[in-house]
Amino acid sequence: MTTKRLTFFVTIAAAAAFSSCGKGAGGEKSDGQGVLINGVRWTESNVAAAGTFAAAPEDTGMFYQWNSKTAWPATGDMTGWNTMPATGDAWTSANDPCPAGWRVPTKNEQATLLDASKVESVWAAVNGVDGRRFTDRTSGKSIFIPAVGSRDKADGTFMGSLGFGFYWSATAVYTDEAWDLAFNEDDSRQSSNDRRMGFTVRCVKSK
User: Fold this and answer.
1) Cα 140 to the center of its chain, rounded Å
2) Which of 14, 30, 125, 201 is deepest in the core (most CB within 10 A)?
């Protein structure tokens, strides 16, 4: 299997907002400072409209094309979809949809969730929404990341979740692709996908 194409994922890939406080992945009140997992501090919900978080960990939030601040809704047909891939080697701060103090994670930061020696990753459901729960083996703290699918690169058509989650990283891999975190019930890994795809975003704390 090459890093250029991970067929297992690419074939599938072919909100109300809140300020900084909300419920944690287990339903407890959050202090808005995120959850530290294997040295990286993650938000507890996806990005909704640019600059806001979804109301709950299981909410889809909104979809984003790579290195773009334009938010696309989780349901409905699209008009005006950008069919030109963004340029650059990294997601720029000017285009970052994360709220102040947070940012799109790098490929290496996403990889920390996949270190089985330090993070337990299990398939789970929260309020009927499937996804993966990543738990720090030392602290026992966790985040839930929902498997909410993607939008197609050609026209923004929602491709359905089919039990898959796709989350952009800020790191480019080829001139027309970027790294993402991809998972389903059986597996979680990093793959590369066309920058025009609409994926969800889970932020990390800015350093």
Assistant:
1) 22
2) 201
